[in-house]
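Hi support team,

I'm filing this because I wasn't sure whether my run with zinc ion finished correctly. The job status page said complete, but I'd like someone to confirm that the output block is well-formed before I use it downstream. Pasting the exact inputs I used:
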Amino acid sequence: MRRSGETALVLFSGGQDSSTCLAWALANFGRVETIGFRYGQRHAVEMDCRPVILAEIRRLFPAWTVKLGDDHLLDLSVIRGLGATAMTHNIAIQSGNAGLPNTFVPGRNLLFFTAAAALAYRRGIRTLVGGMCETDYSGYPDCRDDTIKALQVALGLGMDTRFVLETPLMWIDKPATWELAERLGGAPLLELIVENTHSCYIGERGERHDWGYGCGKCPACALRSQGYGRYRAKREAGSHGNC
Ligand code: ZN
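And here is everything the job wrote out:
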């Protein structure tokens, strides 16, 4: 899929998934802008990673640099005021209502896409890209394909504009997300993602593992490290098979 005549706006948090989506957009669209949100998240680590990742992309990928446009930062701290979650308040991660972990921030992705669409509307952009995934998510209902499709319809009707919400990770698991990064940008992109993106829910960035930085124990670290391990194992098996 190449839409080189179009601009995409990527929801870019500084995590593994949104960084992979950014690379995907740069490979497929003629111009790419990024948007990030301050919503009262407990740890600023992820937000601090954003400018570093953008600078590294500009340094390592000249063909993408010419496509990479403005980065937008929006304040959605109203989310923190709506109630406590483990992402916005200093409380332990645990299961909450209806089996959902309390890392679920109700309405977050809906607000993110709505704010991004409002910005896109003003900038004449019709494609929005998000890293939502239904395959190995934590059961977050706003990551579901049906939610995103319904939102695409609602945003299109509400702004009388044909928006397209692209979610390139929707049907792939974490090992396949690492594979996608490798396919898009080879070893330099993999290294960039390992070194510079952040997933850990508790903001730990002390120890460097082969999959990157993090506590290694929280659900986000578990998903990232297990995914990386399975990706590497599959890769090793493949390279031995080729010998
Ligand atoms: Zn962690």
